[in-house]
Give the backbone structure.
Amino acid sequence: MKEPEDRLLRRAAQNGANLSERTPDGRFQEARRCAGRLLSLRWRLASALFLTAVGGLWAQDLPEGPGREETARLCKQCHELARSISLRQDRDGWNATINRMSAFGMKATPKELDAVVDYLAKNYPAEEIPRVNVNTASAIELESGLTLRRSQSAAIIQYREKNGTFKSLDDLKKVPNLDVEKIEAKKDRIAF
Ligand code: HEC
């Protein structure tokens, strides 16, 4: 089921070689560098873990929606479909991945590429960073999640232990010596 990596590499190198004739702009180098990364232990470990977790992935396992057929068809030509959807990223990220696959030799019409990018960006979007709940977060979570200094996270914890839960941003701003501007700037990252 898993295509041997040397075959993948060879195919990438072949495709890269074709490509370099058309675009002498260093993309061949990029293709080779990328293909070389295939051998890195980290990737091998990650993909082994991933494939063990997911097992065989079939076209019909992909979420329904426009672009599914194109994605299933194009993205299993050189490696397992599971690898194709192993990333979570925004539209720009998916665009970049698909450009790389084209550089490896993926053949597709512009219309098909648009459909694939739309599909992947919708169904495999960047993971949202969870908000920091100021009523339950530990000192470390407050510091790293809201980039607060230690004294400030301690002040928040002390205040909530004494006064009960925060219900709003205004409650939070009552904490003595808190950098209110910073809290205001981070308000989209805060939950109550
Ligand atoms: C022409 C062959 C080919 C096709 C078709 C292809 N890929 Fe790849 N893909 C590769 C090669 C070669 C690698 C390994 C290189 C590497 O690890 O950088 C790879 C690796 C990947 C990876 C691993 C992470 C990364 O960025 O290297 C992802 C994700 C991926 N492909 C997504 C896709 C998607 C999505 C499609 C369908 C739009 C697709 N691939 C179609 C050749 C292809």
